[in-house]
Amino acid sequence: MNQPTQTDVAQRAGVSRATVSYVINGLTDGKIPISDETRKRVLDAIEELGYEPDARAQALSSGKTNTIALIIPDLRNPHFSEFASGVEEAARAADYHFLLSSTTLISDEYAVDVFKDLVRRRFDGLILASHFILKSKESREILARIHKRGLPIVEFSDINNVDTISADYTEATKEVISHLVSLGHRRIGFVYGVGTGGYELGLDRLSSYEESLQAVGVALDPGLVIKCGPTIEDGYQGALKLLQRDPRPTAIIAINDLLAIGTMRAAGDLGMCIPDDLSIIGYDDIPMANYLLPRLTTVTKDTFTAGQTAFEILMARMQNPKLPRQFTKLPTKLIIRESTGRAPF
Amino acid sequence: MNQPTQTDVAQRAGVSRATVSYVINGLTDGKIPISDETRKRVLDAIEELGYEPDARAQALSSGKTNTIALIIPDLRNPHFSEFASGVEEAARAADYHFLLSSTTLISDEYAVDVFKDLVRRRFDGLILASHFILKSKESREILARIHKRGLPIVEFSDINNVDTISADYTEATKEVISHLVSLGHRRIGFVYGVGTGGYELGLDRLSSYEESLQAVGVALDPGLVIKCGPTIEDGYQGALKLLQRDPRPTAIIAINDLLAIGTMRAAGDLGMCIPDDLSIIGYDDIPMANYLLPRLTTVTKDTFTAGQTAFEILMARMQNPKLPRQFTKLPTKLIIRESTGRAPF
DNA sequence: TTGTAGGCGTTATCAC
DNA sequence: GTGATAACGCCTACAA
């Protein structure tokens, strides 16, 4: 691409390069050392040439990249694309460039590549929604290094010594359990996912599940907990296994809505009716959840807003690196819809 | 962020900056003018410092950004995130950086901003899956300008004089219609979306719908065609309207699976059973389509692969700008699942 | 085999 | 008010 440069603009306007630079970003200061006539000539030249400043050169020269990076595990999971949209819009509103990468559910080396690639582009702040990449020693090192250099980071979990934003599922999961128990459920299955590198997702929800169950005096049955992969199909397979046990669970909790959808399908394939034969609950409240047949009971956390919030925390840290470490807990709430009902027997 | 620089590496290894540069990218040539001993010293220094070259400086200096950009309308539509994933993986495999932006379903000015932002970062090639932004005169100008400068572009439609990749829905839509007609349907509704700036999506499918219908001798009824927005909720509302007509359609075609899901929900809310009371067909075959209750009959086009293909076309163009203009038609296919059945009356 | 020097498009610091 | 000039981090002849 051969975009026009400042020099082109300067020539066309018959001024020096520095003057062009002043016109472009000098007016932010109260001091405006440029005559109106000159300024107009420059602006006209910019307009005619379709000049846009080269952000790379600006960054190089000024030391400010004006860029934040976001790493998510999978672009195709609505939960994360929702989150990413929130971050993107907030970043753009604050005039930040936005680099989005997904580690995808491939391999650990892939994640390391993604990380390195990002580091090469340089950025002023990082939002990390991928626990995955922390599994590999190499990426942990990269992360530790940039963190030590003072690069602001907001993380979605609690692994490193950085600002943290996470959903607090404790209360909501307690609600989930008491909702189910009050409907007569006692055998409550749990489906959770494993990502790349064996990192387990939803352990927070799992422990809440166990605690809440014990709190209401229901004995734990390890056979009711299924660990599977992160895709819908994985959820489907996991639920299938769970439902073929005897006695089978009368309700299943899945750690996200995708897995819950797989679970719904599994129930359907076994000829069960939701919620009459089986109650199902997910987490995330993806937009689609409210349009499924039946509408999915789920735990919401307004993921789009979470993305915006993550950016705000990052922004605060970038502006003031000395801020004490921030822990942000997002509120979650059980949304009771149509996929839960009385226990069948 | 204060990453170490080439200079740091050079000092630590006790060599000049140029030598470091050679070690980093000189070995790709057959010519390796560096002694093994020196090379090792340099590589060690890189390792110890955790040095990663600054891609911006590299780009500035070499003139090659090694970056492609992708613009999609909405990150939250599984169809596009699928496509984006395909592009991202292909790009990464080819060692290209990848800039993803979504114009989101907001405003036209927003889209222009996105576009300008991208131009500032400079890139070697562009994949444009957002017709939206072409609606605004300003963005058309930007696009025309960078195109005139010889920047390779692959587009998802046929608007400009660039390489094009698009799905050919003609055959598949013909299949859709004959499938429905053979099941006894005569009143077949059609739900399509309108994006930002009034740009109409799915006009190709609409005209195929009309032609195919006439070809089998079914009279067109404009009242059976509903134009709505692009979200699930829009599809829901649109279908609701359609279904409250008298006589109501016995089948509905939605131009994408999201709208189809909204349609399914609308039917559900009106107490209709799918497919006994109403048949529904979508387009895109998003992963979820095969897990819905009932499984959605849809027209597939392997969107992930489409993303990879788009990148390959772009790559070919970048390597050889003189290539004749490429038109790539993606094959589509009707996948009959459970959401279509005999007409009820 | 290695080092020197100029340039990529900016910004920022000086003089004029 | 405006115009040189030195960085920024890297690449690439060309010289040593």
Please explain how this structure is put together.
The structure is a homodimer of 345-residue chains. By secondary structure, chain A is of the alpha/beta class. In chain A, 43% of the residues lie in helices and 16% in strands. Chain A folds into three domains: 6-62, lambda repressor-like DNA-binding domains (434 Repressor (Amino-terminal Domain)), CATH 1.10.260.40; 67-167 and 304-329, Rossmann fold, CATH 3.40.50.2300; 170-300, 3-Layer(aba) Sandwich (Rossmann fold), CATH 3.40.50. Chain A has helices spanning 6-13, 17-25, 36-49, 55-62, 78-93, 108-121, 137-148, 169-182, 203-215, 232-243, 257-269, 303-319, and strands spanning 67-72, 97-102, 125-128, 153-155, 163-167, 188-193, 225-228, 251-254, 279-284, 297-300, 327-330, 333-335. In chain A, strands 2-1-3-4-5-11 form a six-stranded parallel β-sheet, with helices on both faces. In chain A, α10 (232-243) crosses α11. Chain A is elongated and about 85 Å long. The first copy, chain A, starts with 5 loop residues before the first helix and ends in a 10-residue tail after the last strand. The interface between A and B is large, with 65 and 65 residues. The structure holds a DNA duplex (16 and 16 nucleotides).
